[in-house]
Amino acid sequence: MSWDCGLRYMFTVPPALQPGSKGILHDKEDLSRLEMVQRLAKDGCRFLQNHSKSPEKTSGPQSDEAVRLCLRESGRDVLVLQRVSSQQPVLAASARGGGREEARSGRYVVVSGTPEKILEHLLNDLTLDEDQGTTQGNDPDTLLDDFLLTYPVFMSTSDLCQALLGHYCTKRQRGKEEQKENLERKQKLLHLVSQWMCLCRDFLREDEHVKVFLKTLYRYVLDDVYEHPALEKDVGELQRVYQLHRRHTTDEYSPQRKSKALFHQLSPKENGLQSRGAPRETREVLCHVYITMDSYLSLRAHSGVVAQELVQAIAERMDVPHGELLLVAITYPGGRLLLQPQDRVFSGSLRPAGRLHVCKKDLGEVLNPFTDNSELQQRTVRMLSLNTWDVAVALTDFDQTLFDSMHEQELVYFTFNRHSSGSGGGGGGNTTALEMLLQRCNDVQLWVATEVLLCPALCKRVQLIKKFIKIAAHCKAQRNLNCFFAIIMGLNTAAVSRLSQTWEKIPGKFKKLFSELETLTDPSLNHKAYRDSFRKMKAPKIPFLPLLLKDITFIHEGNKTFHDNLVNFQKLHMIADMARLIRQCQKDYMGNTITQKSSSEVRAYIDYLHIIDNQQTLFDLSHRLEPRA
To answer: Is 81 in the same domain as 156?
Structure first.
């Protein structure tokens, strides 16, 4: 076993390293941790060959690219580490927009490896403090956070559960040092599990593998409390994380009663995992209900809404008696499903049964959708009576509610398209909040164009465009860049931008303001104007999500996920870094709240957007307003 680091430092050990074997370490700063080397050697691993580009060069510092360590087992690489020196400080995720830097001399980061070895290295790399917490695990830019955010890419939840149980139950020798090492390993693993549950609980709530894992791990910890009393603190932490209530007494630690007590503690009918399911029934979702073949109402509803409630809401918006309406789902071309009053509209995956249409009962053909409604043609006029700041507040409040419910791991699931059929163990609802925000951005863009093109009077259309320009400026001031972009793109829609007579009537100061706002959406230099402006904004703030997804897609498609059957962890670190941006944008460090209270009238208007999503229809309306010369 040899290691050549290119700087003529040598670490020599016998070919078969056993406990008590001696090695010569001339400069320990050029190694990772000697403890880790010895531990891996005890497991029969052959260690490390460095990939150095110029081993002859001894004068001058060596680049970190050259200092790579490879752990080999059975003749193949299983873990590749790279040194990060003080010359290359690591930016914490919170510092991406300006902040502190970390300079960790002699630190090694994971480049690639097998899932098992990455997890093993992670557990070895965690450091317990005096209070049995961790120092590295608290850092937002650590291997722990990267691993927990991106593990669904390379291993299933079931595999991770089995691996964690395997590490917890690994038998060690019974010497005093071995007992101490055994306790530390268990505490590190329990800390990892605690962090995992806190970070990913929304995705793991209904996972049967996780339920079994928690029961088993809890039983193991109770068994070990006798031998390691220090684990009593971790028992309490497990109970806190899973919202368990400890009901057993001291004698219930006995092996005869422990299993029964544990079953009651973790029974799905009684524990916190089940109670967490209740809020899911009241989650808000975006619902599209078509009122013609090419236009729909976009409205906010709770996930458990039934057909009768949805029909009543639509009827109130359209000023039609709700007893005259039916709700129909178009399940496939030519297939129609009439929803009964108490039928739930959304399934467990928060997807409707099909494209929803509202229809009149008294039509000869019951399932024909609406073809005309004069009220919808005139509703744009209401917009002129609304305060622009209040409209921006309502739009931002809507977006903020969705954005706050979004989990940063949704970006990982969305990017790698891992749903319930994948190995990540997640359900089809793993990207619900993200998809709703993207849908809302598209809705607002189409709504702006629809409102303008449904306004027949030139003077009122000019006033409407002025209002939208002011609303866009207010959304920017409220740090809602997702809605800001949507409004600007809506005004730049081809069907709207071609209205030359209308734009000529726009006052100069509004044209200047619109031009200034447009510069923020300029895609040149990789959207530099937007990125610079967004970086300076205080949190909380809502990013333009399509651009964020574009960045992640670029990382995903430009880098392989696996190299020679090893997980490319450098790529996953970049993905996790992008996901952490969501976390940073959601935090309110200094009480910089975005929204204010808006009137109920404005909220009711914004919660029900009338949208035409057929581009040909929009162009027809545009040409009707201003025919081609």
So the answer is: no
